[in-house]
Specification:
Elements lengths: L2 E8 L3 E6 L1 E2 L2 E2 L16 E6 L2 H8 L3 E3 L4 E4 L4 H11 L4 E2 L2 H11 L4 E5 L7 E8 L2 E9 L7 H16 L4 E4 L3 E3 L6 H13 L9 H16 L6 H10 L4 H27 L1
Antiparallel strand pairs: 1-2, 1-5, 3-4, 6-13, 7-11, 7-12, 8-9, 9-10, 10-11
Helix pairs in contact: 5-6, 6-8, 7-8
Length: 270
């Protein structure tokens, strides 16, 4: 006998999910041979107890992002960095001459720790004061040009575990974000529609791909919303676009969006 284990609510209707119970428990609906998934582009909200199914339906909407760290404290930066330095292992070092030079130039507003080795090479972690405490303002690679989100986050998480956790309260943001956390449902659907159907070796050069791409850009203009360059690159990379194509599309998005906004504003002024 089939068992209803949850509902998926789509834009147009709600579909009860039925799947047979296996010897080890419920078979995830998307793995059941009897289950034909609806178009994930139409997905709006999941009301299902199966986390595996939830991940399955939201996988096309996830983006990796650079994590943020806020150390919540009223202590002076010098005291915070002293405590952290006393806890960090030998793989971390204080570039004392460098920090002294920064202190002389900007009055101690910034402080750095160097990671001597990691899977991504050496890196310099920057700390700075903020309204809410002390933040990690950036992590800069010392052996290559830039860090990918996974590489950046791995270093930041290591810093938290080895130097911050247990001494301070802190906020560490999630390493992933959903597309609908940044864009409306309509714009999200249009971006997914473009990415899933476009020829990833030619970008939007095909007329139909260009039409879908411009429909996405126009939707963000119409809804007065924007997606950060790095987040858009991250989303496209997760969708299977190579790094160069993802960055070219993100550049094109910024330019096309400005052009559309200018055209609309000029039209209103006439």
């Amino acid at each position: 006998m089939d068992n209803i284990i949850g509902n998926i609510t789509f834009l147009d209707d709600a579909i009860p999910i039925r799947t047979k119970q296996s010897t080890n428990g419920y078979v995830p609906p998307h793995k059941s041979p009897e289950f034909v998934p609806a178009d994930p582009i139409k997905l709006r909200r999941l009301t299902i107890d199966c986390y595996e199914c939830r991940d399955y339906y939201q996988k096309d909407r996830k983006m990796k992002k650079f994590q943020d760290l806020i150390i919540k404290t009223d202590l002076q930066e010098s005291e915070v960095t002293r405590i952290i330095a006393s806890r960090l292992p030998e793989s971390w070092v204080e570039p004392r001459e460098f920090n002294a030079d920064i202190l002389a130039k900007v009055g101690g507003a910034y402080y750095a720790f160097d990671l001597k080795s990691s899977r991504s090479g050496r890196a310099r972690l920057w700390m700075a004061p903020s309204e809410n405490g002390i933040i990690v303002s950036n992590i800069i690679p010392l052996d290559k040009r830039e860090l990918a989100p996974d590489e950046y986050n791995e270093i930041l998480q290591k810093f938290v575990e080895q130097g911050v956790k247990g001494s301070f309260d802190f906020i560490l943001t999630d390493p992933e974000i959903l597309l609908t956390d940044v864009l409306s449902e309509v714009s999200s659907q249009k971006l997914i529609a473009f990415s899933s159907s476009a020829n990833k070796s030619t970008g939007h050069s095909h007329p139909l791909d260009e039409k879908r791409w411009l429909a996405f850009v126009y939707s963000t203009v119409k809804q007065d919303e924007e997606i950060d360059f790095e987040l858009l690159v991250s989303f496209l990379s997760e969708q299977g676009w190579d790094d160069e194509s993802a960055q070219d599309l993100a550049d094109d998005f910024s330019y096309a969006r400005r052009a559309m906004r200018y055209a609309l504003e000029s039209e209103r002024e006439e």
